[in-house]
Amino acid sequence: xxxRNIILLHLLESDTYEFYGSPASLYDRHEAKELLxxxxxxxxxFSKMAAQGKDLVYRNDYCEIRKGCIYVKPxxxxxxxxxx
Length: 84
Fold this sequence. Notes:
The chain is of the alpha+beta class. It has helices at residues 23-29, 32-35, 39-51, and strands at residues 2-11, 16-20, 57-59, 63-72. A 4-stranded antiparallel beta sheet has the order 2-1-4-3.
């Protein structure tokens, strides 16, 4: 099985959830002022939490951002068949 990173954004005020494939895609849709944290600061926070073996979670008064893995079935799409 293959796994991919996933970013979960929980907007506390509206109680909505949004899913992203990377922190960069999160910041394509939301500004740092809106989330109250810059992209580089969020990446540094996740790096420190991973090094300490803790859950990859960032919380503030406005939102909660989690980083995790989603497991996907490997595909053979686009691969050429081997010739014998």
